[in-house]
Design goal:
Helices cover 29% and strands 35% of the residues. With 174 residues, it is of the alpha+beta class. The mean pLDDT is 89. A hairpin with a 2-residue loop joins strand 6 and strand 7. The protein has one domain: 3-Layer(aba) Sandwich (Aminopeptidase), CATH 3.40.630.30.
């Protein structure tokens, strides 16, 4: 899947080592909900299992010049209800706050609706993730609800906002 500045490529074993650095980066895990540190073996075992999971599709985000800058995917794909949860992170800090995440979201939503024939895509965003809220809203997602005090981070509870987009509401941000 290609957009103006990015290319999404199926996540493979060659990306596992690069992403280990990112999942152990506090700036990334602050927004993803994952715990760190994670050992290289734990990370490898996790991805070996997840790459076989039929309820998940994971892609690496590459710049047009071939630099791997992050990952995006659909998880918990419900093939009956035809919905899935979208997650995204830009691991390479030089590419944050520059619109790459929004381009990746748009590309994956198009894939979800056009190729996987999903009806709805949703995302969970921590209340303090203003960058994430902005990106999803830019891509046509709307707020559907709030999970009150749903996550515990840095010694306190935080709300999680659920945002979603339905196939017929999809619009292009390009």
């Amino acid at each position: 899947m290609k957009k103006r500045r990015i290319l999404l490529r199926a996540f493979g074993s060659e990306e596992i080592e690069r992403t280990l650095e990112w999942v152990n980066d506090d700036e990334v895990t602050r927004y993803t909900g994952t715990s760190s540190p994670i050992s290289a073996q734990e990370h490898k075992t996790y991805w070996e299992r997840e790459l076989k999971n039929q309820a998940r599709r994971t892609f690496s985000i590459f710049t047009s010049d071939g630099r791997h800058i992050g990952n995006i995917g659909l998880r918990n794909i419900d093939w009956i209800a035809r919905n899935a949860e979208l997650y995204v992170y830009i691991g390479d800090d030089k590419f944050r706050d520059k619109g790459y995440g929004s381009e990746a979201i748009e590309a994956l939503v198009e894939f979800a609706f056009e190729r996987l024939n999903l009806h709805k895509v949703f995302a969970r965003v921590f209340e303090y993730n203003e960058r994430g809220m902005k990106s999803f809203k830019k891509c046509g997602f709307t707020e559907e609800g709030v999970l009150k005090e749903h996550v515990f981070r840095n010694g306190k509870y935080h709300d999680v906002t659920i945002l979603g987009v339905i196939r017929k509401e999809q619009r292009s941000v390009s």
